[in-house]
Amino acid sequence: MNEQDPSFWKRVKQTRLSRRGLIHGVAGTVAGVSFLTPKLVLADEGQDSENASCAIASPIPGGVTPFKPFGVVVHHNPLNPANPLAKLNDPSQITDFDGFVGLTHIRGGGTGTNTNTGATTPLAFQADMGFSQGKFVGIDGRQHNRTFAFV
Amino acid sequence: MYTGPAGSASLPLQIHDYNVHIDSNDVFWMILVNHDAVEVNFDAGRASLRVNNLNVFDDHDIANSLTLGLGLPGDPDYPFPAIAPVAPVRATVSFDVEWNGIHDMAQLNNTAQNFKGTFLSTGATIKWSAEQSGFRFESESPDPSRNLISVLGREQNGVFFT
To answer: Can you give the pTM of this predicted structure?
Structure first.
């Protein structure tokens, strides 16, 4: 049972890539915009139209692929408590950037509530969050000054 | 978000994963916010990020988030357990993240990754909540002991790295 069929992963990958393409296609058709890229339809409270209308930054070239070979490439270097600060990888998610960055890696707890029944339960969370604030050269080749939340 | 006691973060126990998805340029989980959502006093090792009612997706778990809802197959030779496919749903989150207190400082000039700057290891706390159809979450009060690692940086990368 533990013997690996050499074509197993290839078949799985082909199937999943096909499913991924289907999901992208259906989502784009149903929503009118890509359901998987929310920047055009999501905005912070009070966010101005200039900010809401642009996905203008470029990702850092590096990053990780946590679920290789299935997951997408993540252009982000997660903080690792075991690494000394002197070995820090680029904490920014965007490149061609000059400014402030912040990242956190926090684990805690809280309370979940079923809003239909009122039942509550203790839950745990991990928050990998942060921000970038400063100037960057966008994909339009122009310099911008913006604030991003990493969520 | 996970079932289990505070501090748990095991993939099979994950029941919510809130994020803004990867944008069309492949920028990871970043969304433009108002400038005043972030306040930085770098020299003091302090910063804050405060956002209310941000529209996000709940991908259920990190595996579905990073496989675009396809889950994981599970196999004796694969290092992760089987994770069922789950489609994202809409949610809103509010959060107040505070960086405070310098634990360590480093000047970095990383030619392999083309970035440089001054970086601080700091304390940090978070207070946050989430809301979606049929469910609401409220985190505990901010607790500095929950911080595993947090960093502030004043950096230059890419074309600004010289």
So the answer is: 0.84
Domain that holds residue A46: 37-150
Question: pLDDT digit string (tens) for B45-95?
Answer: 999 999 999 999 999 999 999 999 999 998 888 999 999 999 999 999 999
**Distances from the Cα of B84 to the Cαs of A118, B1, B69, B74, B107, in angstroms?**
27, 17, 9, 9, 44
ipTM greater than cut 0.90:
yes
Classify residue A70: in a domain, yes or no: yes
Among candidates B1, B88, B113 on the partner chain, residue whose Cβ is nearest the Cβ of A89? B113
For residue B113, the chain A residues in CB contact (below 8 A) are 60, 62, 89-90
Based on the structure, what is the number of domains in chain A? 1
Among A34, A101, A124, the residue with its CB nearest the CB of B155 is A101
A34-59 per-position pLDDT tens digit: 344 444 333 333 333 344 434 699 99
DSSP E strand boundaries for chain B: 18-19, 30-33, 38-41, 46-58, 89-110, 115-132, 135-139, 147-157
